[in-house]
Specification:
By secondary structure, the chain is mostly helical. The chain contains two helices and no strands. The chain has one domain.
């Protein structure tokens, strides 16, 4: 059975280089200091990951909003065109 690493997997590319370096420095400290800093480091890593997920969700929502606005602008343009054509037709009658 393999032991669970004390710090999150820092080989993943989703962490900033500075956090990976910090994990390496913490791992080089004596055991009591490592234990003191481990919980704080894990909270920071989780916070970074959560912020990235939130940023991704916001970017996705903005992209969807842009697309929705394009559809609405197209619909508005077509509706105005239809209105003008009907107005013209009524005036001709």
């Amino acid at each position: 059975m393999t032991a669970k690493p004390r710090f999150p997997d820092t080989s993943e590319s989703d962490l900033p280089r500075e956090l990976i370096e910090l994990a390496q420095k913490i791992a080089g400290l004596p055991e009591p200091l490592q234990r003191d800093l481990e919980a704080s480091y894990c909270r920071v890593v989780e916070s970074v990951r959560r912020r990235r997920r939130i940023l991704s969700l916001v970017q996705e929502a903005l992209s969807q909003l842009r697309l929705d606005i394009k559809y609405l602008m197209f619909d508005l343009e077509v509706t105005r065109k239809e209105r003008d054509e009907l107005k013209l037709k009524l005036e001709q009658d």
